[in-house]
Automatic annotation (TrEMBL):
Protein name per UniProt: Glutamine synthetase
Residues bound to L-glutamate: N262, G263, R320, E326, R338, R359
Taxonomic lineage from the root: Bacteria, Bacillati, Bacillota, Bacilli, Bacillales
Entry annotated with the keyword Signal: no
Superkingdom of source: Bacteria
Amino acid sequence: MDAKQILTLIETEKIEYVDFRIVDMLGRQHHVTIPAYAVDEETFVNGVAFDGSSLIGYRGIEASDMVMMPDPASAFVDPFVEAPTLNIVCDILDPDGTVYERDPRSIAKKAEDYLKATGLATAAYFGPESEFFIFDNVRYSSGPDGSYFHIDSEEAYWNTGAEGKNLGYKVRNKGGYFPVQPTDTQTDIRNEMSTLMSQAGLKVERHHHEVATAGQAEINFRFDTLTRTADNLLLFKYIVRNVAAKYGKTATFMPKPIVGDNGSGMHVHQSLFNGDTPLFYEKGAYANLSEMALHYIGGILHHAPALIALTNPSTNSFKRLVPGYEAPVNLVFSKGNRSAAVRIPVAAVTPKSARVEFRTPDSTANPYLAFAAMLMAGLDGIKRKLDPRELGYGPVDKNIYELSDVEKHEIRSVPGSLGEALDALEADHDFLLEGDVFTKDVIDNWISLKRAEIQQVERTVNPKEYELYYDL
């Protein structure tokens, strides 16, 4: 849609408010709502003013005037607001009309422009699989007098002995993959989420209960171009959270909210096209992958330690990325091993669906920054012809846990903490600066924000420390 079509939609659908949305550096959305009668064509030319100093990672108060520039193509009718409301995603501009270099959405768009400028491809397609939990209750506190969290779910295995009405159908620890009702208590919720996603423009492919107890879920939606997929992922999270709230429940995309059971990842499928021609397919080659696709994988794995500072940017991320479990911590590629950082889907694959799957990321990532960084790493691999086979990244099609100690020792792992990932990003970020997609200021700002989070966590007394040390 363009601006005129938006105004026509406002009139025909009797829209009363228009909600303009932006995203901060960390990936949280923010909005301002304007009565529909005050929105006209000039709104799409001049934008909407806001105070950038109030958002994490943006401007200081001395230079806080900024502009939201609406993207008409992103518009959808909000299903959660009583008054008919149209939501529109915006880019962030400086007052002089230039792109604000720290705007995550603009960084994603610059990555797509850079791809076209290289002449290697005309489009990059991304398809994230964002897992989440739906809980019935969550409580947490972190203060000088105490620190704790407590979660609960009607289907959690720890409630088999709960008093009162208890029907006994609980999801066993690591036993939640594909159970039918009544064990799966959340089919209706996922159905409603999927319906609203479809109405908002997402092409939902399937949904199901995931492996963990206590309401782990997955809903897959169809891939799209890089920036549009990042838009869609934020819309996806918005719908998931609000439908859960409607049912009196709460949804979280934290990677590891439960101790001792599977965490939530965000496997990201990626491919390059030149017009309608897929560039990652070569019949008869390993996993039917082209040399370009292998070099793309080489770039992802070579830069993975630095990438992970953007794709797994929380201290909680590394509670999921623990060696010895199913978590994709091994910096290898494989056509069948789900503990590999890069997996090549081979079931029911056509030339146009040939793709690579980076399994390490999680949904605490800002999708604009994470997808842009993955593309830049892959393009660096293509330009430098980084062959993952020659660099020692596989393929490894055996069960990694059954390898000998010598074989395991040869496999590199992801960083063990957010601090280590940030160290890697400080040492390896030139590939992100190509084409001015990321700037040194953006990277330095990101590292500063994340190191501050680490300090907060490290300085907070953990209940486990009482268990370990109180009586020493």
